[in-house]
Here is the input.
Amino acid sequence: MELSSGTVWAIIGAAISMGLAAIASGIGVGLAGVAGAGVISEDPKKFGPVLVLQALPQTQGIYGFLGAVLILIGVGVLGGPVKEIPIGMGYAALGGGIVIGLSSFTAVAQGAIAASGMGAVAKRPETFGQAIVLAVMAETFAIFGLLIAILIFVGTKIMGG
Amino acid sequence: MLRPTRMKRLQIVALKGFRDGIVKGLQALGTVHLTDYSEAINDPHLKDLLQPHPISPNIRRIAAQNIALNRLLDLFERHDPEPREGFIKAVFAPLPPKRIETEELFGPGLLDAVDGIIGKVESEVAQPVEDLERIEEEIAEGVRTRGLLELVLPLDIDLGDVGDSDFLSVLLGVAPKEEIDNLRERLEDITNNAFYLGARETSEDNIVTVVVCLKEQVSAVLPNLRRLNWERVEIQGLQGTPGKAIDSIDKRLEGLDQEKRAKERMIVDIARRWKDELRKYQELLMVERQREENHTKFARMEHVVAIEGWVPCDSVAQAVQEIRSISRGACVVDLTDPDDNDDVPVQLKNPKFFKSFELLTRLYGLPAYNGVDPTLFLAPGFLLFFSIMLTDALYGLIALVLGMLLIRGGGKYNEMIKDGGIILSSAGAATIIIGALSGGWFGGFGLKLPLLASLQVFDPMVQVTAFLLIALIIGLAHVNVGVVINVAHKLKAGQRWKAISENLWFLFMQPGLIFIVSGHKSLGLVFIVIALILLLGGHKAMSMFQITGFMGDVLSYARLMALGLCTTGIAMTVNVLASMLYMVGWLGIVLAVIIFLFGHLFNFLINAMGSFVHGLRLHYVEFFTKFYQSGGTEFTPLEMKFDTVEIK
Here is the structure.
């Protein structure tokens, strides 16, 4: 099967969306996990709140996954048949993938905030809610990244077209 | 509602003799939050009159009793641990909590009773514990000796000969195999050939040795042998060969083990008889201690004691009547309204359903006494946002069922689990409605049924731009509600300038822009000029940041759409993956079902959590910042709160 170059660019976009988001989320979850292990070594009962805080930087990985899937469905690689798409649309999909992939790096900062939040929860469990809100702040920009990507997909008829 | 419970400052001056009775009465009522009188004591006018109240002499006795009770309960817990429920069982289907009924006991009567019971239980348990310790020591010693005997097992000697006799010393030891010749040479040197060295190989790379030498040479022999990595094995008081000694030790250990178990059974028996009783006294003592500890908050004069606290307005009459009746009228009770500088404790008061959502308000921090209690606004807003972000009726159903299980399970005995259950189930119910309207039934899976498809009025994956617009309009409305609450609250509090200068401009700016866009330019300009005057008057050089701040706040609600699409998109992906597998034979069908179930479960968990935290965030960051003053102190009345004890 011969793929059009537009489709290939779109697939590269999907790969960048998931790949970068996976790296960023991995680093974020890793940062939080290291701190979390420290907290539960002192007090295993804190596993619940620590796990929730560690899960927060995973969301960017899910946005990357969603972006990749939307592109793949849009060009028919997933749930086929594969469409012939113009090269410009392929670039647009690549752009969407890049914006999601890059904005996923907020997960690194979110992981660091979650790690400090775990320290706060270890000392004063009642700060759990506040610690979550502090960490969630960093995610705003990843959501905006996803939003812009979705608007690109809609505007260029990759989605809903 | 909308404001924390109104409080009155309660000041009591009563004869010293009624002090304990009054404090006890207030504790039984459970409606008075006692505060420290020290501020009044430092007042220059009252300095000569009032003195700090001394610490209760009972505190030390109670602390000692508490330690003794804890020690006994720890001992019993070690030997007869309470069965623990797993997390899932504790949350969804816990056993009813234990209840211990008792007559009310307090004051000197309680302290004497506690001393009595501690003495009784300690005397009963002391002997078995002492015996047990001795047995455990003997077992440890037996195991150690057995270990040493294992080392010298290959030697065929009588252990009775080991040690010192009149002229000779018999030593046992272990050394590395390759040192045997060196050992012999060294012994020849030191003892002038007056020695015996016997050696047998053990299973490892070592040898076990018997060294016989003159008693007077032992002090020279030992250090020299040690330098060659020879380790002495000190066994004393045993007879026969090592093998026989091991047999007799094994028999002894068996006997000791039986004795140990018998003693442990005795302790378990004592534990079962006394545990509840000890726990009962522990709780009664805790309540007693809370009462006694409050003494340091009081002030005193020669014959009277002064007590101060806060009481909710609707409990004032009952509290005053109780104090008067206890002190037989020989007291002064003064009730005043709080002034602006008072740190009045905060008690939230909301109707039944909304009460559960106080949990989410508390998560942020209690409102200030004179601030707004946002719970009534938070509940509907949270449910709306949660349901838009989860957008799937079947995920909503899962949340509803989980919530109901929480309410009917752990919620029966735990208020916090009940509140969590009510929040989760109502969020689930809201999600069912929004999910049905947007056609989310495990993604598009349920839309194959015409009935479900007919409910759909909106397709988030197709009408993406409309979805974004709806999210932003909801955001704008939410921020406006926040601004209106602030204006209304400030006007009510008489702070007119703050009411108009803080963020009223935002309410004028919007109709201004709408009029201009719809062609009524002059009317629009009037509104915009008013908005700009309010903005510049209130915020001066920082006005620009007000505009960008409000824009950012409204745009932030775009996450409703992004996260809503995220749930739908991943649900769709799960369905696509499952349907692709479904086509490839029976193994594919099995895998498809697994992927379908686990995929949707994963999507539910991750997005329910996302909807929860982002639903809260939109309130805490975008909504609360418009009007909320936090920093209230929790209203913690002196009360009789027991875990398991029930007063008859």
The CA atoms of residues 106 and 139 of chain A lie 6 Å apart. Residues 5-42 of chain A form the longest helix (38 residues). Chain A touches chain B at residues 52, 55-56, 58-59, 62-63, 65-66, 69-70, 73, 78-79, 128-130, 132-133, 136-137, 140, 143-144, 146-147, 150-151, 154, 159-160 (CB under 8 Å).
